[in-house]
Amino acid sequence: MNSRVTNICVRSETAHEQSTPPSVSPIFQTAAFDFRDLEHLEGMVSGNEPGFMYTRDSNPNHNVFSQTVADMESAEAGVAAASGQGAMAATVLAHASAGDHVIAAKVLYGGTSQIVKFIRERHGIETTLVDANNPDEFAAAVQPNTKLAIVESISNPLIEVTDIQAVADAIGDVPLLVDNTFCTPVLLRPLELGASCVFHSASKYLNGHGDVMSGVVVGQRELMERVNEYISVFGANANPFECWLAVRGMRTLALRMERVSTTAAVIAEFLASNEFVSRVNYPGLADHASHDLARRILPDGCSGMISFELASGGADAVNRFMQAVPTIPFSPTLADARTTISHPASTSHRPLSPEDRADLGVTDSLVRLSIGLEDTELIKQELSDALAAPVQAT
Ligand SMILES: *Cc1c(COP(=O)(O)O)cnc(C)c1O
After folding, report:
1. String of b and e for 383-393 (b: at least 16 CB within 10 Å)?
2. Is 109 in the pocket of ligand 1 (CB under 6 A)?
3. DSSP per-residue letters across 185-231
4. Is the Cβ atom of 84 under 6 angstroms away from ligand 1?
5. What was the pLDDT predicted at 390?
6. In sequence order, what are the beta bridge partners of 229?
7. How far apart are CA 293 and CA 152, in angstroms?
8. CB of residue 204 inside a 6 A radius of ligand 1
9. pLDDT score for 186
10. Alpha-carbon distance 289 to 155, whole Å?
């Protein structure tokens, strides 16, 4: 074999172009970073010199992504993770160990509820579940060993808004973690309302194109360093390309949130007046339990999530409705650029017993809509036709 060619292949050039910096951050698709010598490494590890060592610990693309979210949320620092779940698990573990206590809202994203269940059943952390609409329950749940409380700014699937300020006041010095996935910092910044750290599944609105799996958490620098320790040690680190895509997606975040909020308000009104719909959950509607709170803390819009119940009832009717509207896909995620439909009883709330689902108001005829960027009139027409279709079919 030609050793000259072999060596050139192995030691291919690395681009270090700085005189004309790239307009868009490159993707630092590298496992590690090179050092000149031991002194260089020591300087970097001790924090005297900027730099990176190993992508499981940190990477320039992680930093661009997490710092952009931190800046939007008015936080000191942020940490990116492989998924929302990775970020949430690391954040919970960075706060609470065996013997500690965590308060969590009864209604949370299914994966977050699973984390709360795991820490209770497998990791010796006590938990108390409370009604997110009732700050008094949070106050009553605080114990001397309480290390964290977890709520969502808007919860799924009844699209209820949490009074973050009231919850923060109720728990005093206990840190409050807010899952702000449904609102994004464009519509709501929980740190301004007394939260201590903010979480996002970037797989949803932050990226907004349905092609990224990532999570991010932001807050005080010291806490973020602790969260990052868990992410690095447990290997829940983000991937540079996912971070790059998320940053690219976020360039249009403000425009997208404005658009989905405007469209969702129109679609919610339309659904509320439709004869085949018995109930619509959207905080922008005057009869929603969170309406007054939403007017106060979400002045720029209520985001793009709506749920509604079919009047004819039951999973069969939902099935026919889905079949009647193939242009709006049934996709068990949310915040895609496309409008999507989901069925909470058979997806996010599937692990619950029928009694628990009924208790939370998750009926078999409840449909969730994630409003996308299509023309409002098109979405309205397609829903209108599909809602009328099942009746014709029976
Ligand atoms: C999707 C989601 C999560 C979990 O994030 P992944 O990126 O799927 O791991 C957490 N909270 C909310 C509100 C979500 O919608």
Report:
1. beebbebbeee
2. yes
3. HHH--GGGGT-SEEEEETTTTTT-SS----EEEEE-HHHHHHHHHHH
4. yes
5. 55
6. none
7. 14
8. yes
9. 97
10. 13
**Residue whose entry in the numeric block shows the structure tokens 């940190």:** 58
Residue whose structure tokens are 């031991």: 38
Q: Which atom of ligand 1 is nearest to the CA of 333?
A: 1
Contacts (Cβ under 8 Å, ≥6 apart) of 259: 373
CA distance 85 to 198: 14
363 CB-near residues (< 8 Å, 6+ apart): 309, 313, 345, 357
Q: Say yes or no: CB of residue 133 within 6 Å of ligand 1.
A: no
Kindly tell me the burial class for residue 14, based on how many C-beta atoms sit within 10 Å of its own C-beta (0-12, 13-18, 19 or more).
exposed
> What is the model's pLDDT at position 21?
85
Q: Tell me the C-alpha distance between 169 and 166, whole Å.
A: 5
With a 6 A CB cut-off, is 245 part of the ligand 1 pocket? no
Q: Would the pTM of this model clear 0.85, i.e. be above it?
A: yes
Residue-level pLDDT at 391: 59
| CA 66–ligand 1 middle distance (angstroms) | 16
- Determine phi and psi for 135, rounding to 5 degrees: -55, -30
* 206 CA to centre of ligand 1 in angstroms: 11
Q: Are 350 and 367 in contact (CB under 8 A)?
A: no
C-alpha dist (Å) from residue 67 to 103, 148, 216, 273: 28, 23, 10, 43
Distance 178 CA to ligand 1 centre (A): 12
SS3 143: coil
Instruction: Check: CB of residue 236 under 8 Å from CB of residue 57.
Output: no
- Residue 299's Cβ-count burial label (10 Å; 0-12, 13-18, 19+) is exposed
Closest CA to 281 of 157, 170, 169: 157
Question: What are the structure tokens assigned to 283, written together?
Answer: 């905080």
- Residue position matching structure tokens 């279709």: 389
Residues of the chain with pLDDT under 70: 17, 390-394
290 lines ligand 1 (CB under 6 A): no
CA 144 to chain centre: 30
The token pair that represents 378 in the structure block: 């098109």
Place of tokens 């949490």: 162
Tokens read off for 86: 């990775």
pLDDT at residue 392 in the model: 53
